[in-house]
Protein 1
Amino acid sequence: MAETYSAGNIRVLEGLDAVRLRPGMYIGTTGVKGLHHILWEIVDNAIDEVSNGFATSVLVTIHRDGSASVEDDGRGIPVDIHPQLGVSGVEVVFTQLHAGGKFDTSNYAHSGGLHGVGASVTNALSEWLRVEVRRDGKVYRMEFESKEVNGEVKGGLPKYHLIETGETTDRHGSTVRFMPDKRIFETVVFQFDVISRRLKELAFLNKGVRIKLVDERVAVGDGYRSLEYCYDGGIIDFVKYINEARSTLYDEPVMIKGARDGISMELAFQHTDAYTENLFSYVNNIPTTEGGTHETGFKAAYTKVMNDFARRVGMLKEKDQNLLGDDYREGLTAVLSVQMTNVQFEGQTKTKLGNPAARVAIDGLVSQLLSEYFALPENENVGEAILKKGMLAAKVREAARKEKEITRAKNAIDNFNLVGKLTPCTGKKPENNELFIVEGDSAGGTCKQARARSYQAVLPLRGKPLNAEKKRIDQVLANEEIRTLISALGSGIGEDFNIDNLNYHKVVILSDADVDGYHIRAILLTFFFRYMKDLINEGKVYIGLPPLYKIEKGNQVEYAYDDAALAEAKTRFGKGAIVQRYKGLGEMDTEQLWETTMDPERRALMQVTIDDAAEAEKLVSVLMGDAVELRREYIIENADFNKVDEFKGSEK
Ligand code: TSJ
């Protein structure tokens, strides 16, 4: 049946060799992020078919063998022979390298940085990949595999050209299933949480798309673990979702959409009584975490429209100064979604939009559409609510500015006393130094004894530091525990944050594995999230994982960090093993604490990262805000406390 592929055709695949040779150039990393990246390449193609109006739903399945598949009900990947290349459209899609490699700046429509590098990259980095296309009543199939050719592993080789299977069908669409290559990736285990979060985001960004996720590795009832997302309100629902745990200043989010100069835009926003600004922007469904020209355009237009409105309704008089954009954006939750071609991504993480045309187009669109919106009498109450909030923010800003000058002078003296609680390390190189923030004085004492004094410093926390989520910055700064922490770190907070002044390049939160411990951890993470976000973004924050059990038999001693590891150790030790459960850090002696939790050679640390800014924002507000019922629900749903904090950790 399947004809073997002749050596001559392998020339076509030189592009794919490059991908296997330097995967990082195409997918960033070969870690867990890269693994999911090759799934996104496939998912993005299916979503495109939906957003172009040819499909309605997408199904993502994680199979028991560890492979993943993506199915849509679209037109089906073209099967006809490509006139220049002489092979089927399917074969072209999976063997021709798209533009979009890191150093490639060519003009593929949806490319930019590492995004949109195409399905051929997934193929190149898979052990095997199978495609089924349903079109015009027929079923087509093609398979690819990696295998050794002349002593060298080649990726994405066709096993045979596209065939008609002979089956008939009344369904239409494409299915792609692939097995990530263990020779490439550090891990090939797909993570349900990572996938569900991205699919949810895609469902918000693509109104009405039905996206289903099934995890066949986990049986539930007589089916499998699964989730389905579909939002008829699109980004309006996204804004409502983020604001769910907050008090909003008006009932419905404002929504505008339009297109100009080939750039289309959707914007939804709603204000809450919070003090922070939350703008989530996307370009071609890709989060632009570092912002860029589209955000600049939006902010400029929004500020202009609000100041115009303020003058029209008389809230600002002729002699008054305009308010600043910051004032109108206090408490703002906004989602800005832009679609355009020839995207240029810039910035450290290539998540900043660089195209100047986007600033012009978005500024123009928002100016026009938003002033039209506020011109309607029924929307005046929304405008007035925003103005009221903005006026108050401006007042506080002015008061804070005056306050700042006084506190700046005072701080120099304060810091001197505050760091008294800190047990510093003797080494003077911040990049080698570690700060352990430890819950409680007694564990703090043990930690001080246990540490490697040349590079490990210890800061014990006595009471509970306060919840930064519910406070304005002046109240946060009034808390002694927090002030001690800030002065120990040395890098300042908020707008003044400067990572160059950081005294410790690992900041390790060490708390007990109980409810109190998790609460302290969540409070500290919330504080970092709100006031030192770059500390997290730069990967400086870690969670220390003290072991939960000690297993002993004769002179063999081992520590287990979770129940699975305990079960495994028990089996290995066999009869006569003694298990001790640690209830807290305080139960460990100096040597045990060093061996299990502090010694870089033996400890387990979890690095705190934010890979989905909107979801992190939502969770911080749910977990640390005022909506008691929502928080209760969330905690019950996520009873595994290791997941209750809002940040995704990766084992280190
Ligand atoms: F990327 C991919 F190949 F892996 C992939 C593509 C994976 C999955 C799950 C779906 C798809 C895909 C591609 N779904 N739908 C399409 N559509 C097309 O490629 C297509 C179909 C028809 C026409 C046409 O002009 O008639 C054009 C295109 C691009």
Protein 2
Amino acid sequence: MRIAFDPLAGMKLSPSRGADLAGRPPTILVFDSGLGGLTVHRELVRARPDARFVYCADDAAFPYGGLDEDHLVARVVAVMDRLISAHAPDCVVIACNTASTLVLPHLRARFPLPFVGTVPAIKPACERSASRMVSILATPGTVARDYTKALVATYGGGCEVTLVGAPRLAGLAEATMRGETADPAAVAAEIAPCFVDRAGRRTDAVALACTHYPLLVDTFRALAPWPVDWIDPAPAIARRLTQILGPAGPAAEPKPATAILTGGAALASLSAMFRGFGLAETRVEPLPLH
Ligand code: DGL
């Protein structure tokens, strides 16, 4: 099942094929295990307001952070098989670090399409840090990846990098999107290992390496023991999309956008939330996790 690959291939400027649109607006498929990819989706809409967006939350398999690697590869390839044949996207954005750090080479080998991934923003975090102490806040799956370790080795730039795999944060972010209040003590406990204070130096930059976490960034700021730079990769992903597809034309008109759920729990409350992100239609296309 595993494909051997250069662990840093996803960081090179042009790992994907470009898209030949011949002047028509593109169809862009945005994919995550759940609602975190919406933090990327909102930036992509700003970059290409003319595109037809399809957002898929593979909520039947949420959270990806707890799946073993072979299972996750098989799952994402199976869901993508179905989505690509149903929606014929011009470009796919994997708005999930847990999937991107493992599955991108499999997807690129299988589908003749450009894929944009989301991987931990280790290089920007290290470049921005004055104290040279940086933390990467991710899922347990992402911090365990060879890919993530290779990013630290290549782009750590002499910084002390602390990898924090938070087991509960993505679930807490989903709960807030369903209208619940995340327990501040639980959130504080999840982010606490990011804050390292040693020998007169303190962490000053934290990369949000799970797309769910920007949904909670205001809570993180309120609970942080001291201020840090919280780095959200979404603007960089939107820039990468523009490199691949080109900028929007002058007469960019928003197109109807659809959200697809593979499970569909709490659909009623989620439809209103999706509308807030410009996804007017919400559909359940069941794909149980086996
Ligand atoms: N949003 C996903 C990410 O960026 C992960 C959430 C999950 O564990 O499913 O890593």
